[in-house]
Design goal:
Blueprint lengths: L8 E3 L15 H4 L10 E6 L8 E2 L6 H5 L9 E2 H13 L5 E8 L21 E10 L16 H12 L13 H12 L23 H4 L10 E2 L2 E2 L2 H5 L5 E7 L10 H4 L20 H10 L19 E7 L6 H10 L5 E2 L4 H19 L9 E7 L4 E8 L9 E11 L6 E4 L47 H4 L21 E4 L8 E3 L4 H6 L1 H5 L16 H15 L22 E4 L14 E6 L5 E5 L11 E6 L6 H7 L16 E5 L14 E6 L7 E6 L7 E7 L18 E7 L2 E9 L22 H5 L13 E6 L5 E7 L4 E3 L4 E4 L11 E3 L9 E5 L4 E6 L2 E3 L10 E3 L7 E7 L21 E7 L2 E9 L14 E7 L12 E2 L4 E2 L4 H4 L11 E5 L12 E3 L2 E8 L13 E8 L24 E3 L10 E4 L2 E3 L9 E3 L16
Parallel strand pairs: 2-5, 2-9, 9-10, 10-11, 16-21, 29-31, 37-41, 42-43
Antiparallel strand pairs: 1-12, 3-4, 5-6, 7-8, 12-13, 13-14, 14-15, 16-17, 18-19, 19-20, 20-21, 22-23, 23-24, 24-25, 26-27, 27-28, 28-29, 30-31, 32-33, 33-34, 34-37, 35-36, 38-39, 39-40, 40-43, 44-45, 45-46, 46-47, 48-49, 49-50
Length: 1115
């Protein structure tokens, strides 16, 4: 939707960190499966040119390195000395990593062959100066020239570097990138030494009968990593889980690198990079870099390396002379998976900073077992400006219930050199690291750098980066940096905190303060979960200690410690599932104009509050401050547990965890939401596991919220008797009821699960992954007594307009406004897809999918007997709820015919992506959706699939009477249409299916279709071939053709066959955790959660279509 009122798109990036299990989707954050993987391998390479002899440190720039002992006391100094000193400083405190160094030989061989182990008397290719050696943590004395007490392997490494002579004249070497990487490939895989010993004339030696190991043994190849004519594989020696990184230090682009091409293109059995396609003799270095990034060198097919767990590939960084930062060198970095090349500065501070950043990133990616990683929950952006809002959360590492959260801001910008889109921080620098998460040294846009505390752990001074309790909106909550959150809303500069008050006829809210009268009013909610309970049912009858406890809970809610004077260490709870919502109020005055529109962000957190934040101030400065926060009364009971912050059950209580939606109305079409003009902005949200209610707020004036309406689960027979945990994000649109176009809110009945997350009582659909698994093999799900409904309510007052629920027969009851169907027996935790199929801007159809594996079609139209004459044809009408209906479109779960085992207990937790298309049979409405139990992310018992369902009954009100099942959809798991191995052509009339074959692989996020390509993500509880990660698991991105599920992008270059063939449908994401939907950025670009810098924004080559409503004023 492209309008000036509101557009929202969102996705979630999750983390890997925590303690005790909850047996729901937080399980992956709380139960790390820590495997003692191998130390990372880091290979440095050096472009050996006269640039190394350039004079540096003409002023005081090197004083700190001199004072710390990394440079000698007197100069002059050249760049090579500075580089050695910087490496020493960066590596001195680092342990648990194996470091090596490679150099190129000179390139002066002629004749045939021009390279390889049979060539003698000349120089070519590259050699291993220092093989991978384990570095110990720290040293007693940092002085490079005073070696007492230092780590022996570090000393040997720097002795090797110190022995390399300065490159003068003919002693310099071209950077032969392809051949250097080929030698590295041979070393990593334990194969024959190829060019490594071809160093007869590498450092000015003119005696072509003596080799480098004879005339310069101090800087010759490392014989300790060789056995006879072969290398000793460092991958095989370390076992599974090893990660390899290359840091290339360059002054020029790669050249003179083609002499070994024939050997490189041989098959694996002959020591080659089988499948690599080297076209011509230039610009192929990228191809080799990308090959090693894509290849799993530990899959049992390369050299001496056996079949190991995890992916043993090579990630490549490039640090390049600033004058050579261009499309070519950035292309090297992109091919290596690290986005863009970085400047090789001769400024000591900048050089140390760059090297430190890379080493820190490498250790983070490789040793996530000991280095906390920040969970990025949501990427969310507005269409009117290139701004991205990231919601973050951080599970408590000691298993306590209070988790920190934050909301941070980045921008979408263009890289100055490549022109490619990227996420940028406040300095304009790329903000995304190779693990797909925010860089540690990034400065997010709202952050007040001057007020940041001293860094701890892996935080960076002067930056907030991925650290959750640092910078961002959390830093801007009133009273955090200075002043106080206040004991009441009326205090100067205080937070504006509220809860609901049905007796207040003005705005339906009451302020939360620390007064005893407030404790008395909220006594039932404050004390509800006390164990043991309070001595009295009223505040007045309670003991003094109990009254103090109640008031202290209110202080905690406001952000104060029990003394009522000091501020808590962090004030913003975690947004575990709540996706931020951006509302653009436009030029609403008071300093907000077209150049500085008033954009507000709403986000729920599990300390119970729904927050509103400001994007910018009226003076057009970056803000991020909290406007107000509202806590529903039904979640106030969790505050006692969070205030005490002691371990218990549930490990992590749920507060306001639902995602908000908005309805906006710009009555005079001036592009702004101004309440005095009669414009409207309403917000709707549920609580997810936090409760069984929906809330509607009037935020037409963003600084003066009002309660619009609430609805909650009712008694049997009541309008909302079937309501479960309110997981389903409200969907807003227009329908015609009678003769009136009516704004409506549509939501599914929610999840039927363990209400208290304590494994007690009615577990509902959680029984499979809780009680039964604890004692026996999981059993299939059973019928649900709540959540098995679809609701439509009036957006302005919350009154029920229509619902679909279980009943003894198929039909409509005008008294209860309910359409009943006997097969509505499973809960609906997912959002619904409400669509306008005929372009009149009125909703006429809904699709929803349940936990029984059924996709339902709801027709907001039907045949009506307009004249009570059986001989006259009924007419199709849309405005009568009495003819609306619900019918089954697809059944692939526990109700399918022939259901036998739990392997078929497929469950839907997403809404389908709906696209209108056509094929050779005719037009169809395509539904793209996959199965997977989000509340059992680590389960492996069920066979899950991703589907395209072709609904050919394209007229709303006339649904098909045929229910499709699993085998009615063509099985394209093998991608046989692409490689022509299908035999008989599959029947695609009803659609297709792809099995998710990695152990326990699930589709847990909504797909998105752009330019005929379907993007969807999956989660696997284990790495691809082993157990080399925490329990956060592995994420994948699939991109397939809508028409036939063939591949769209070339994700794996190791199986290329030349030409333009595209063979691969799936890419492994850089970050783990449960990935979510891909987000449209506009201009045909998509943002891919969890992918590394340089690959996280995809150009689809086509424009996205956005859902629009009447006059483009409703969302």
């Amino acid at each position: 939707m492209r309008n000036s009122t509101l557009v929202v798109a969102s996705l979630m990036v999750c983390l890997f960190f925590g303690r005790a299990a909850l047996a729901d989707d937080t399980d992956i954050y709380l139960s790390p499966t820590v495997v003692s993987g191998a130390e990372p391998l880091v290979m440095f390479t050096l472009d050996y040119r006269p640039n190394l002899t350039a004079t540096v440190c003409g002023g005081t720039e090197c004083d700190s390195l001199i004072a710390e002992g990394y440079l000698p006391a007197t100069g002059p100094y050249n760049f090579f000395q500075l580089l050695r000193a910087a490496l020493k400083k960066v590596l001195d405190p680092v342990g648990g990593v194996r470091v090596g160094f490679m150099l190129n030989h000179d390139d002066n061989c002629v004749g045939t062959p021009t390279s390889g182990p049979t060539k003698t008397g000349c120089s070519n290719g590259a050699f291993v100066l220092s093989g991978f050696k384990l570095m110990g943590a720290g040293s007693d004395d940092p002085d490079t020239y005073q070696t007492t007490g230092e780590d022996a392997n570090k000393l040997a490494f720097f002795d090797k570097l110190a022995a390399i002579p300065d490159p003068i004249g003919t002693t310099s070497h071209a950077f032969q990138g392809k051949e250097l990487y080929f030698e590295l490939f041979r070393y990593l895989t334990g194969q024959e030494i190829y060019n490594g010993h071809l160093g007869y004339e590498s450092f000015g030696n003119t005696d072509s009968t003596t080799n480098l190991d004879v005339y310069a043994p101090s800087h010759s190849w490392d014989a300790s990593v060789e056995s006879g004519t072969k290398y000793l594989s460092p991958i095989e020696a370390s076992g599974e889980c090893v990660k390899t990184f290359v840091i290339n230090l360059m002054f020029q682009v790669s050249s003179q690198e083609d002499d070994s091409d024939a050997a490189m293109t041989l098959d694996k059995a002959s020591g080659g990079m089988e499948g690599i396609v080297l076209l011509g003799k230039s610009n192929n270095f990228n191809t080799v870099i990308r090959y090693l990034k894509d290849a799993d060198l530990g899959d049992g097919t390369y050299g001496a390396v056996s079949d190991l767990g995890g992916a043993q590939n090579v990630i490549s960084y490039f640090i390049v002379d600033p004058t050579k930062l261009n499309t070519t060198t950035h292309g090297y970095a992109s091919a290596g998976g690290t986005g863009v090349a970085l400047p090789l500065s001769d400024d000591p501070d900048e050089l140390v900073k760059t090297l430190t950043s890379l080493v820190t990133s490498i250790l983070s990616v490789s040793t996530t077992f000991v280095s906390p990683s920040v969970p990025v929950n949501v990427f969310n952006r507005t269409q009117v400006v290139n701004e991205v809002f990231l919601a973050l959360f951080d599970p408590d590492e000691d298993g306590y219930p209070l988790w920190n959260g934050n909301l941070k801001k980045l921008r979408v910008g263009k890289n100055a050199t490549t022109g490619e889109s990227e996420l940028q921080d406040a300095t304009g620098a790329n903000a995304i690291d190779i693990d797909g998460r925010v860089k540690r040294d990034a400065v997010t846009i709202w952050t007040d750098v001057a007020s940041l505390p001293a860094p701890i752990d892996d935080e960076v001074a002067g930056a907030d980066g991925r650290s959750v309790p640092r910078g961002g909106a959390g830093q801007k909550i009133p009273g955090f940096i200075g002043g106080s959150p206040g004991t009441s809303n009326s205090d100067a500069g205080a937070r504006q905190l509220y809860t609901l008050d049905s007796s207040d006829l003005v705005d339906g809210l009451m302020p939360i303060d620390t007064a005893s009268t407030t404790a008395e009013t909220l006594w039932p909610e404050i004390t509800q979960d006390w164990s043991p309970g309070p001595s009295s049912g009223s505040y007045s009858g309670a003991s003094v200690a109990e009254k103090i406890r109640a008031v202290n809970i209110l202080k905690f809610a406001r952000g104060l410690n029990d003394d009522g004077l000091t501020t808590r260490s962090w004030l913003l709870g975690d947004p575990l599932h709540s996706q931020p919502l951006a509302i653009n109020y436009g030029a609403r005055g008071g300093g907000y104009d077209a150049d500085n529109p008033d954009i507000r962000l709403l986000m729920g957190t599990n300390d119970g509050f729904m927050h509103m934040f400001r994007n910018t101030s009226p003076s057009a400065t970056e803000d991020g401050g909290e406007s107000w926060s509202i806590i529903p009364r039904e979640v106030i009971p969790i505050l006692d547990r969070l205030h005490a912050n002691t371990a218990g059950i549930p490990v992590h209580p749920t507060g306001t965890d639902g995602s908000p939606s908005a309805f906006t109305l710009d009555v005079n079409f001036d592009g702004s939401i101004i309440s005095s003009d009669g414009d409207i902005a309403h917000v709707y949200f549920g609580l997810r596991r936090g409760g069984k209610s929906y809330y509607a707020l009037d935020v037409s004036d963003p600084d003066a919220p009002k309660v619009l309406w609430t609805l909650s689960k009712g008694a049997p027979g009541s309008a909302f008797a079937e309501l479960g945990q309110t997981w389903s994000k409200p969907q807003v649109g227009l329908v015609k009821v009678g003769g009136t176009i009516t704004p409506v809110v549509i939501f599914a009945g929610g999840y039927n699960g363990d209400d208290e997350s304590d494994d007690l009582g009615d577990l509902g659909k959680d029984a499979k992954n809780r009680a039964t698994r604890a004692s026996a093999a999981p059993t299939p799900g059973s019928d649900d007594d709540e959540g098995n409904a679809i609701y439509m309510v009036n957006a302005f007052n919350g009154s029920l307009i229509w619902k679909a629920t279980k009943g003894g027969s198929v039909g409509y009851n005008s008294a209860t406004k309910a359409f009943t169907h006997p097969d509505l027996v499973d809960s609906f935790p997912s959002n619904v897809s409400a669509i306008d199929t005929d372009g009149n801007r009125l909703l006429d159809r809904i699709y929803a999918a349940d936990t029984g594996g059924v996709v339902w079609r709801i027709d907001l139209a039907g045949l009506f007997d307009h004249d009570a004459d059986s001989t006259t044809p009924d007419i199709l009408v849309h405005n009568k709820p009495s003819v609306w209906s619900a019918s089954k479109l697809l059944s692939v779960g526990r109700h399918v015919s022939g259901f036998v085992t739990i392997r078929d207990d497929r469950r839907f937790f997403n809404r389908p992506d709906v696209v209108q298309s056509r094929d050779g049979t005719g037009p169809f409405d395509g539904l793209l959706i996959g199965t997977g139990d989000r509340e059992d992310p680590n389960g492996t018992e069920v066979d899950n699939f991703f589907y395209l369902i072709k609904d050919r009954a394209i007229t709303s009100g006339l649904p098909s009477t045929t229910v499709l099942e699993h085998d009615d959809l063509a099985d394209l798991t093998s991608n046989c249409l692409q490689d022509s191995s299908c035999g008989a052509a599959p029947d695609l009339t009803n659609g297709w299916r792809i099995e998710l074959t990695d152990g326990g692989e699930k589709n847990l996020a909504t797909a998105i279709t752009a330019a005929g390509s379907v993007f969807f993500s999956t989660f696997s509880p284990t790495p691809p071939t082993g157990t080399c990660s925490l329990s956060e698991g592995t994420g994948r991105l699939y991109v397939v053709s809508l028409q036939d599920a063939t591949a769209v992008f070339n994700f794996d270059t190791t199986n290329d066959i030349g030409g333009t063939a595209v063979l691969d449908r799936v890419d492994l994401l850089a970050s783990g955790g449960i990935p979510v939907e891909v987000v449209p950025l506009g201009a045909g670009e998509l943002l891919v959660q969890g992918q590394e810098a340089g690959q996280n924004i995809v150009d689809t080559g086509g424009q996205m279509s956005f859902k629009t409503y009447w006059h483009e004023i409703f969302q």
